[in-house]
Specification:
Elements: H1 2-8, E1 11-15, H2 23-27, E2 39-42, E3 45-52, E4 55-63, E5 69-74, H3 78-88, H4 104-112, H5 124-133, H6 139-153, H7 171-175, H8 179-184, H9 189-200, H10 202-207, H11 216-246, H12 250-253, H13 274-279, H14 286-296, H15 310-319, H16 325-332, H17 339-348
Antiparallel strand pairs: 1-5, 2-3, 3-4, 4-5
Helix pairs in contact: 5-9, 5-14, 15-16
Organism: Subtercola lobariae
InterPro entries: Alkylbase_DNA_Glycosylase/TA (IPR051912), DNA_glycosylase (IPR011257)
Protein name: 3-methyladenine DNA glycosylase
């Protein structure tokens, strides 16, 4: 009965960012296709289902005309995800030290997109699995595999999630998928073994979000820093929070967290050694580590080296011609420490990469 009530009655919070926030541009990197099983966009927000350290959760977030984000969460992980909401919406991402004066075009892109930030889910294994699935295949193939596996082995989300949404399997669930189901999903032995191997390390991988590669060693220090920041912000927002609670019925307040907070006591972002630690996992290379950390950590300097399209796109936007990975890294070098931010601006610029030749042929070996 308690579990049913926990799933039926949401916890709520209101996050009031102190700067522009575009929800779609910030969390859009978590969406893998229009029918992504773990996420849905709405006109003013999104639904997202995930497996937190405390269990599965369904999150609904909507932005109002003032820019405040109203969130509801159902399931065992509700408190965890509402505490993580500011980081999910880019609160820990600062672009203040990014100098774009040498490329006025990029500065103009930033001026037009002031609400775009790097999301941070704090869920490493969750971000790693789809990144492994996307290794060395087309986007269409990877999404087809992702959808098949989640429909077949994912869990129904708690609460009133939109139809068709599924929570990723647990680490144990990924390990129990039979070999023939990987084949039916179009996932070859290399990628399936990499996912199963990563699942055995899932708990340790998720600890990377607690303080870079040092994990628990820095968690206490980072949390203390975050709590100090939170206390400072809390003092400045006490009046707003008091007024909000005064207008909220007691029955609703009992299921409400952080109204007017706009901060989180989660560990501050630390990406020290994360890329190297991820690449120590069997089957995880430079590209996969970058794709994972961009989402799990909001890594500001992770570049997806080895991407089929990215290097040429960066080259066309910055110098008017395609370049290879080495050329891309050379072009991005002046922004070391911020290279993912610059890549995001390039992708948001609207400047397309010219297409040459036919698309890659999709090979379907599922029934061979």
């Amino acid at each position: 009965m308690d579990a049913l009530l926990e799933s039926a009655v949401p916890l709520t919070t209101t996050y009031r960012p102190s700067r522009p926030l575009n929800l779609r541009q910030t969390v859009g990197t978590l969406l893998r296709g229009a029918t992504e099983p773990t996420m849905r966009f709405t006109p003013n927000g999104f639904w997202r289902v995930m497996r937190t350290p405390l269990g599965p959760v369904t999150l609904q977030a909507e932005s109002d005309e003032r820019g405040d984000v109203h969130a509801r969460a159902w399931g065992p992980g509700a408190e965890w995800v509402l505490d993580a909401l500011p980081e999910l919406l880019g609160a820990g991402d600062s672009w203040n030290e990014l100098d774009l004066t040498s490329v006025p075009m990029l500065a103009e892109v930033r001026r037009h997109h002031p609400g775009m930030w790097l999301t941070c889910t704090s869920l490493v294994f969750e971000s790693l699995v789809p990144s492994i699935l996307e290794q060395k295949v087309t986007t269409i193939e990877a999404r087809r595999s992702w959808h098949y596996l989640l429909r077949k082995f994912g869990d129904a989300p708690p609460g009133p999630a939109p139809e068709g949404m599924r929570v990723q399997p647990s680490a144990r669930g990924w390990q129990l998928i039979p070999s023939w189901e990987w084949h039916r999903a179009g996932v070859g032995p290399d990628r399936s073994r990499a996912i199963v191997g990563a699942a055995a390390l899932a708990a340790g991988l998720d600890r990377l979000a607690s303080g870079g590669a040092r994990g628990d060693q820095t968690q206490t220090q980072s949390k203390t820093q975050a709590q100090t920041q939170a206390q400072t912000q809390m003092q400045s927002q006490t009046q707003t929070q008091t007024q909000s609670q005064a207008q909220t019925p007691a029955a609703v307040q009992s299921a409400t967290l952080g109204v007017g907070a706009g901060y989180s006591v989660r560990a501050v972002r630390d990406v020290t050694g994360v890329l190297e630690k991820l690449q120590s996992v069997h089957g995880v290379g430079r590209w996969t580590a970058a794709e994972t950390s961009q989402r799990s950590h909001g890594h500001p300097d992770a570049v997806s080296v080895g991407d089929y399209h990215l290097a040429a796109h960066v080259g066309w936007v910055l110098v008017g011609k395609p370049v290879d990975d080495d050329g891309m890294l050379e072009l991005l070098e002046p922004w070391r420490g911020h290279r993912q931010r610059v890549v995001r601006l390039i992708l948001a610029s609207g400047i397309p990469k010219p297409r040459f030749g036919p698309r890659a042929t999709i090979q379907d070996h599922r029934f061979h």
